[in-house]
Write a structure and sequence with these properties.
The chain is of the alpha+beta class and 579 residues long. It has helices spanning 29-40, 93-99, 139-150, 161-164, 190-197, 217-233, 235-244, 249-255, 277-286, 321-327, 336-349, 353-365, 374-386, 389-394, 398-404, 427-435, 448-453, 467-484, 490-496, 498-512, 518-538, 551-554, 568-571; strands at residues 3-8, 13-18, 54-58, 72-77, 84-89, 102-108, 117-122, 125-130, 155-158, 172-174, 183-185, 199-204, 290-293, 304-308, 314-317, 412-413, 416-417. The longest helix has 21 residues, at 518-538.
């Protein structure tokens, strides 16, 4: 029987609640985290207070055998933005929770200051154990100690030093197939919320687990085949991403003039070639690393990779496009090995790589170190581990560091750093950045599809026309994809091949044993967004918060001499569907 566990860290109690028949029956992933937070967390509470809740949930299709459906959602009120937040990642955690019939773990209350605990999740339930011996450890050592004790079949959900410091850019790490803490629920500071609860690590032992039951097993198998075939037909999900990974976008965005460089002062980076996906691919193969690596079992896209040093020793995963950009072009750094070192440090410390790279770029803008100083950037990350005042500033995000040092160009929305696509050169993604319920987030409505890649149609990236409708539709679809536990990259096939969306709907129909149309998939996304908007409104957010920083409207970006031109009054219509 499916269950929701509530773990109260104030009195160290655990309570199991039935999922079926509850207020959250039929919800999973982002739908479950956001609806629960919207229903149960006081919108104006302090994000690090006992009143906030950390909700961990696998997707609705996770564990059914659906390809690329191993995402785990972590939600709460964000200490970075003050808004509602859901951040998701791959890795094995979601599959293991689903195998145990766990629809969500809700962590409530807060342990006494300075105490650290481990949650051990098994088929029998959840136990809480003291873990003060893990205090101050990075994610790699934390996970290694759990594997040594519990065996290599478990998965871990953990925080590093940044989470223990309750830093606003702290991530929650999820272990991959090799039990490395390389998959991160990065955005919004959910690691700080986990640290505030006093939870250092969650160990999930799937022993005795089973596949998520479906009402129509044969129909599910047929739907899975249909969906998998669609993913194999699409060139991005079958060839480009497995071969070159997400960083294939470096050259693409650079040529489009939308590759933010030196803290968004330029749209093209002269040093893009040494850090491109193509060069990264060649370096990995030359050193006997791994390309086409799956971050969890059942991923058919396999866009991840294993990066090794010149001697063939493991360094880190990927690094992914966003990480290479934020620590590379945005900082004026063209050294792939240095970027890989920073990615490893981010993962170990438990920091969002987008926020951290953007913060270092703002620090460079402030004159703390020069653009292009890779060694200096690495020193800043070591300061986070040491808990120095400057390290704490770096771990607090771009908005905080920029304010402290009086920087004018601070690329954030609602306090969250803008990712690797300049909104002046891709106006649709600018709409998403401005209006997303969770601060600047490219994954909330990935308008690069139609603005740059020509996926799902074409919308002129430099014109304001059609951008609001594009972003709105993508934000609705993305919320539903996140609820399903599907990787965002399946959207490429869903936008271009009708059979892909049909396959998803048929998987839901087989799961529930009833018809499930595309309209119901869309309705799920709208329900999630409506709950998130209501929470934010109650937390004090309004139309004035759905805006990009002013410099995007006034500073022209080469080579197009473009500024962001979507009118404010149009931005205010994105969520007109919310009652």
């Amino acid at each position: 029987m499916a269950v929701i566990y509530r773990v109260n860290m104030s009195d160290l109690s655990v309570r199991a609640e039935p999922y079926e028949g509850s207020a959250y029956d039929g919800l999973g992933g982002r739908a479950l985290t956001s609806l629960l937070v919207a229903n149960e967390v006081p919108p104006r509470c302090h994000p690090l207070s006992p009143e906030n809740k950390l909700v961990i949930a696998p997707g609705l299709l996770t564990g059914t055998g659906a390809p690329c459906a191993g995402r785990i959602s972590v939600g709460g009120k964000s200490p970075l933005t003050g808004t509602i937040k859901e951040s998701n990642a791959g890795g094995m955690g979601a599959l293991h929770l689903a195998a145990l019939g766990i629809r969500a773990i809700v962590i409530e209350g807060a342990a006494p200051p300075g105490r650290r605990y481990r949650l051990v999740v098994t088929r029998s339930g959840i136990s809480i154990e003291p873990a003060d011996d893990l205090a101050g450890l990075g994610n790699y050592e934390t996970v290694a100690r759990q594997v040594a004790r519990f065996g290599d079949k478990v998965s871990c959900i953990s925080i590093g030093q940044a989470g223990e410091l309750r830093a606003a850019a702290a991530s929650v790490a999820i272990t991959d197939v090799e039990n490395r803490p390389t998959r991160h629920c990065g955005r919004g500071g959910m690691g700080a919320v986990m640290g505030a609860k006093g939870v250092k690590v969650i160990v999930v032992d799937p022993t005795g687990g089973e596949r998520t039951p479906t009402a129509q097993p044969d129909a599910m198998k047929a739907a899975i085949r249909k969906f998998a075939d669609a993913l194999q037909r699409h060139p991005l999900t079958s060839k480009t991403l497995p071969q070159y990974g997400t960083n294939v976008l470096a050259h693409v965005m650079n040529e489009a003039g939308g590759y933010p460089t030196r803290n968004f002062s330029q749209g093209q980076f002269e040093g893009v070639e040494p850090i491109s996906g193509e060069r990264q691919h060649d370096v990995i193969l030359e050193r006997n690393g791994v390309i086409a690596h799956a971050c969890h079992r059942g991923c058919t896209i396999r866009c991840s990779r294993i990066y090794v040093d010149a001697e063939g020793n493991y360094v880190t995963k990927g690094p992914e496009y966003e990480t290479v950009w934020s620590h590379g072009a945005d900082c004026g750094i063209d050294d792939l090995d240095a970027i890989a070192q920073m990615d490893r440090l981010d993962d170990d410390l438990g920091l969002d790589t987008i926020e951290t790279g953007a913060t270092i770029a703002v620090a460079m803008e402030a004159g703390l170190l020069p653009f292009g100083d890779a060694a200096g950037a690495i020193r800043l990350l070591h300061e986070v581990a040491q808990g120095t005042p400057l390290g704490r500033l770096v771990a607090s995000g771009a908005a905080v560091l920029g304010k402290v040092y009086g920087v004018l160009r601070i690329p954030t929305v609602k306090g969250q750093a803008i990712p690797a696509y300049d909104p002046r050169a891709a106006q649709g993604i600018g709409v998403t950045y401005a209006t997303s319920t969770m601060g600047a987030d490219h994954t909330a409505g990935y308008a690069i599809t139609a603005n740059v890649l020509g996926v799902g149609g074409r919308v002129d990236p430099l014109s304001p026309q059609g951008q609001v409708a594009l972003s709105r539709d993508l934000q609705i679809a993305t919320a539903a994809v996140d609820a399903a536990g599907l990787c965002l990259f399946v959207a490429f096939a869903m936008l271009d091949d009708p059979a892909a969306l049909e396959g998803v709907c048929e998987m839901f129909a087989a799961l529930y044993g009833r018809p499930f149309a595309a309209e119901e998939f869309s309705a799920l996304g709208k329900r999630v967004l409506a709950a998130e908007r209501r929470f934010n409104t109650a937390a004090g957010f309004g139309p004035a918060d759905d805006r990009l920083p002013e410099f995007f409207k006034t500073e022209k970006l080469d080579p197009h001499q473009a500024v962001f031109t979507v009118p404010d009054e149009e931005l205010d219509t994105v969520f007109d569907f919310v009652a």
